[in-house]
Amino acid sequence: MRKILLITGALTFLLVSYALSQKTEIKNPPSLDPYIGNNFYDATKLIPGELRRTSLVSRAKPAPYKEYLKIPKIKLPEADFRGMTVEEAIEKRRSKRQEISFSREPITLAELSQLLFSASGITGRFLELELRAAPSAGALYPIELYLVVGNVAQLEPGIYHYSPKYHNLSLIKRGDFGDKITQAVMNQPSMKNAAVVFIFSAIPARTTHKYGLRGWRYVYMEIGYISENIYLAATSLGISTTAVGAFYDEEVNQLLGLDGREEMALHVQVAGKAQE
Ligand SMILES: Cc1cc2nc3c(=O)[nH]c(=O)nc-3n(C[C@H](O)[C@H](O)[C@H](O)COP(=O)(O)O)c2cc1C
Question: Are strands 122-126 and 168-174 parallel, antiparallel or unpaired?
C-alpha cells in the first residue's frame, strides 16, 4: 500500500512539475516589461514647456532615400489611375486570404507599378521636397518598401527594393524566397504562392532626427497610411491583399539584410490574384 502511495505521489509530483514547467515556458521573458506599451506612450508624449522629447535623438541625419547604386534598375510603367472611385474602393476593400493558395495567374508589371505608386509614389512637389502618395510627418518618409516577388510578369523571382524617387526597382537578391517568407510569417496559409509580399521597413532616425522620441509614433502611423493605400489600389485592380502583422522580426530582417537597429522590418503585406 505504501509503495502504491509512493508511486502515486511521485507521479503527481512529476505531473505538477511538468504542468508548472509548461506554465513557466509561456511566461513572458523576465526582460519584457509588461507596461512596455504605457512606457512607450509616456516616453513619446509631448508636454507643454518640455522640449526634451524633441531633442533626445541627435545622431547624424540619414539620407532621405535609400539607393542601391551598383544594381541595374527595372523601370516601372507609369501608374494609370482609371480604376474605381475611392468611395467604391473603400466600400469593397476586404482582407482577402487564400484558403489554399493564390492563383497561378501573375500580377502584371503595370499592376505592381500601380500598387507601388499608390503606396509611396511621388505625387507632388513643394520647393525642394518631393511629396508622396501617403502623408509623412515633416515629409521625412521613414518607410522603405521591399518586395519578395514570386509571380509578377516580366520580373524574375527575388527580393527587390522600390525607389519612389525614380519609380523603379533594384533586384537585391535573386531566387525564390517564397518558402522563406512564408516561414517568417509563421506559415500563415494566406502567404502560399503570393505573387508579391511587400515588406515595410523603417529608418526611424529620418523622423526622430527632427522629432525626437515622438518620431517613433509617426513611424508606426505612416505604415498604416501606406498599407491602406495598397489595400485601396489592390481593390480597384481586383487583386487580393492582406496586412500581416504576425511575423518573426529577425527572420524578415535577415532576409533583407537589415540590422534591426538603424533599419528594421515593421510590417508585411501579401498580394496576389485570387483562385477562381
Ligand atoms: C496591423 C494589422 C495586422 C494584421 N495581421 C494579420 C495577420 O498576421 N494575418 C492575417 O491573416 N490578417 C492580418 N490582418 C488582417 C485583419 O485580420 C483584418 O484586417 C481584419 O480581420 C478585418 O478584416 P478586413 O480587413 O477585411 O476589413 C492584420 C491587419 C492589421 C491592420
Answer: unpaired
